[in-house]
Amino acid sequence: MSILEVENLTVDIPVAAGMLHPVRSISFSVEKGETLCIVGESGCGKSLTSLALMGLLPKAAIRRADKLLFRGEEIGDLPERKMAHLRGGAMSMIFQEPMTSLNPAYTIGDQLMEVFRRHVTRDKAAARDRAIYLLEKVGISSAASRLGQYPHQLSGGLRQRVMIAMALMCEPELIIADEPTTALDVTIQAQILHLLAELQNEFDMGLILITHDLGVVARIADKVQVMYAGRTVEEGPARAVFDSPQHPYTQGLLRCIPIPGKTKRGERLGAVPGIVPNLVGDLSGCMFRNRCPHAAPVCATADDSLVTGPDGHANACIRPEPERVAEAVA
Amino acid sequence: MKDKNLVDSALETKDVTCVFQVSQGFMKGKKPLAAVKGVSLKVPKGQVVGLVGESGCGKSTLASILLGLQAPTKGDVLYSGESASGFNRKDVARRIQPIFQDPYSSLNPTKTIRSIVSQPLRIHNVGDPSEWNAKVAEILDLVGLPRRAAGSYPSQLSGGQRQRVAIARALIMRPEIVICDEPTSALDVSVQSQILNLLQDLKEELGLTYLLISHNLAVVEHLADRVAVMYLGRIVEEGPSEDVFADPRHPYTRALLESVLTPDPTLSVPDTHLGAVFPNPIDPPSGCVFHPRCADCIDKCKTIAPEPIQDGDHMAECHLADRSCQ
Amino acid sequence: MTMISTPGKSFDEIAQETLEPSPFSKLRKRIFGNYSFLAGLIIIMAIFAMALLAPLIAPHNPYETDLASRLMNPFWHEVKTDEEHPLGTDKVGRDYLSRLVYGAQISLLIGFSTMLISGTIGTVLGVAAGYFGGRVDMVVNFIINTRLAMPVFLVAMAAVVAFGASLMVVILVLGLFLWDRFAVVMRSITMQARDLDYVKAARAMGCSTPYIIVREIFPNVIGSLTVVATVEMANAILLEAALSFLGFGVQAPTPSWGLMLNEAREYMFFSPWLLALPGACLFLLVLAINLFGDGLRDVTLEKGR
């Protein structure tokens, strides 16, 4: 049974100009011990997706889903009180900026123990033991003395470690991490991701990692979901997506980054010209068509649902690969 | 290999040190913080030198010094061999210009693109207003922006377009050197490559020299001819890109390179063995400042600060880099 | 020369799609969508026009006494009314409408000049502290704290006693005392603006410090400056009224709304309109200024970026 199963999740936000559709009918599932990476550029709806899962969307936003199953139970219609109990308990979240997600007025010990005491047991000693155990787990030395420190006394990397420890306090079954390393230096990014992967293995948790960094995705993901303009354009096992990207957007993205050893020094990089379309009002066809080198008239109207291949590798391109290749040859 | 002394340096620092007095809190007095400690760096004409290091390593301070925004406590900066000590702000500005990371805060929101791009011409009294419009149009063509954009405001443009405006502003006076401070890290992946391509085209076209400050080592490796690695205010390794990336001599450089996450799904996240604690720059470690985080640390490292070890064109500041005594 | 490989579309076409409406057309939209801003603006304009055109509007000379027609009732009363004096007369027979119209001059004069004086002092101190930081900031902070420790009202009364009561003294005293909010707000905004990259870029371009402060920083703080200015203007008008009411402000027979309130005290029960009319004028003006200021903040300071 999947930890999380999402079917046709849609988020709509009413704005002055009409209805904004930042997330449209996306589906995915995460198993125990599996890492799903949702990757995309700014404005693709990846962060709203994570907020929608946690029930943390802005008030005006409207969430709809055919299925939103957590441990096999529907959570789409849970009252806020029950949802709050899930958050930070069985399902926890790690945010991008650890400075703003830790409360500067309390010591990290207080904040770690507070989560545990709210969700698991009021026992103070047990909470303290758990906090020290996890701080050591996330690589913070002399954990007992760190409990009395305030967030501003820690560096960015240490704060993010504390955030991870906090997310783990109640033995969650699912962690949603939204750009957890974007604000950090490369060396620290590698350390934090290494730690996250290790802990996930040890505790057999499901992990949803949301990022724009293809390098991170390639190294950590089991499954990849590429989002563009609120839609999933490609999904599948990480190996398959990186080795043979099928959607023109994924292909374009992978050509944009210099890969040491593969791209020659000083060689021109590929580009995806143009910008993300406006997502207000009625939308139809493939959203990538205005930037796509293979766009044809049919792309404006046809259905852009995912078509799954034999190995679970799916893509939403309206024009099948052979047709595109034939065109390129001609 | 070319003899490095034969290539003219567009920019050179000689033993530059910059010390700040940092307040320790109420009634606690001040302590010196050496953000940059005795940095000597050469940027050869027409080349790209990458400067890498963690945040807080002093690379931003060094950039401020090179731009003439911050006076060094000690040492000298030379532009094409001329010492900056006799220069005023405008002399420096004519030779070197910056491109910043965040294209949202680097453009004044109350001004039109025309006014932003032509500002250097007005400040330096170049030509008369009738020529300015022509020059603005020319530079907008050069950076790939439509001429119509001149009349719009920064808030009307996308991130990539704003970064093009920032590049146009930096180049309109045709400086010799451009300091690119994380020029693409605030941009989306698909836009990044366009800006990198543009920077490269402009370099060829105008014969520019770049100092590329970036934490993205893949980008540095892609563009830079030479690389300098900074740690706690010192340049700990410097050399031609091929050498440094193929054969890093300093353990910190090795850790940095290991941390680069190339999009290769067959590999997993590396373990860099660096430790979680970043040293306090006000109270740096004894001996080699890197020793508390170094996996290869030997006794000597804890007490004696290493001297730069030069091997041809490749310098490293590590006791273990001296291959002759191994 | 083509710089960017753009299959299918030229960069120009793409740029056209991205070009948002200009900030000014957006501003216009926000202005006409903000009713409190518009209401405040219209009332202020009306009162301003009234003050400016007072000699034309006012039916009588506001200083002309006519003991024969003392305490005439306004037009809505049944008895003791006079066509000549639609809003009646006061205890020495001066036309109340004319005095109210001329009173607007005093209130606006006080409001504007106080705001100009205090705004200049506060902005200079605040911008200097914010931009230069360090010692300058310390000194300015000390001056702000010293000023905050002084009770404006008591000092103003003492000054009036010492220098004699006149319009000039009231303006100067209020002007020299109401700058603290300007300084505090300008200081913090300048501090934020100073660290922005476009200021750094201007410095790297070789711009002089005065140029940077005036041309780069000032245009970006002007929105907040006007908001503070409206608050302080309303404050100054109320303080003048209060001082005049207590007899420490503008002196009789000048037609000041505060002074009129004072003079009307004795007749509060038999001729309440004497009290109500200048009170209502003050209320309306201050309300309008505050509505205007609030609206201005919403209109100029865009949410987010």
List the helices and strands and how they pair.
The complex is a heterotrimer of chains A (330), B (326) and C (305).
Chain A: E1 4-15, E2 18-30, E3 35-39, H1 46-54, E4 62-64, E5 67-70, E6 73-74, H2 80-86, E7 91-94, H3 98-101, H4 108-119, H5 124-137, H6 143-146, H7 156-168, E8 174-178, H8 186-203, E9 206-211, H9 214-220, E10 223-228, E11 231-237, H10 238-243, H11 248-256, E12 307-308, E13 314-315, H12 321-329
Parallel strand pairs in A: 3-9, 3-10, 7-8, 8-9
Antiparallel strand pairs in A: 1-2, 1-4, 1-5, 5-6, 10-11, 11-13, 12-13
Helix pairs in contact in A: 4-5, 5-7, 7-8
Chain B: E1 9-23, E2 30-44, E3 48-52, H1 59-66, E4 74-79, E5 82-83, H2 89-95, E6 96-99, H3 113-123, H4 129-142, H5 159-171, E7 177-181, H6 189-206, E8 209-213, H7 217-223, E9 226-231, E10 234-240, H8 241-246, H9 251-259, H10 299-303, E11 309-311, E12 314-316
Parallel strand pairs in B: 3-8, 3-9, 6-7, 7-8
Antiparallel strand pairs in B: 1-2, 1-4, 4-5, 9-10, 10-12, 11-12
Helix pairs in contact in B: 3-4, 3-5, 4-5, 5-6
Chain C: H1 11-18, H2 23-33, H3 35-52, H4 54-57, H5 96-132, H6 134-148, H7 152-163, H8 167-177, H9 180-194, H10 197-204, H11 209-245, H12 257-264, H13 273-300
Helix pairs in contact in C: 3-5, 3-13, 5-6, 5-8, 5-9, 5-11, 5-13, 7-8, 9-11, 10-11, 11-12, 11-13, 12-13
Defining key terms:
heterotrimer, B: 326 residues, alpha/beta, Rossmann fold, 4-stranded antiparallel sheet, 10 helices, 30% helix, globular, C: 305 residues, mainly alpha, MetI-like fold, 13 helices, 70% helix, elongated, disordered N terminus
Can you walk through the features of this model?
The complex is a heterotrimer of chains A (330), B (326) and C (305). With 330 residues, chain A is of the alpha/beta class. Helix content of chain A is 34%, strand content 22%. Chain A has two domains: 4-90 and 170-329, Rossmann fold, CATH 3.40.50; 99-169, no CATH class. Chain A is built from twelve helices and 13 strands. The model of chain A has no long low-confidence stretch (mean pLDDT 88). Chain B is of the alpha/beta class. Chain B has one domain: Rossmann fold (3-Layer(aba) Sandwich), CATH 3.40.50.300. Helix content of chain B is 30%, strand content 23%. Chain B has helices spanning 59-66, 89-95, 113-123, 129-142, 159-171, 189-206, 217-223, 241-246, 251-259, 299-303, and strands at 9-23, 30-44, 48-52, 74-79, 82-83, 96-99, 177-181, 209-213, 226-231, 234-240, 309-311, 314-316. In chain B, strand 9 (226-231) and strand 10 (234-240) form a beta hairpin. In chain B, helix 3 (113-123) runs parallel beside helix 5 and helix 4 packs across helix 5 (159-171). The two termini of chain B are 25 Å apart. The model of chain B has no long low-confidence stretch (mean pLDDT 88). Chain C has one domain: MetI-like (MetI-like fold). Chain C has 13 helices and no strands. Chain C has helices spanning 11-18, 23-33, 35-52, 54-57, 96-132, 134-148, 152-163, 167-177, 180-194, 197-204, 209-245, 257-264, 273-300. The longest helix of chain C has 37 residues, at 96-132. The model of chain C is unreliable at 1-18 (pLDDT under 50). Chains B and C meet through helix 2, strand 6, helix 3, helix 5 and helix 6 of B and helix 1, helix 10 and helix 11 of C.
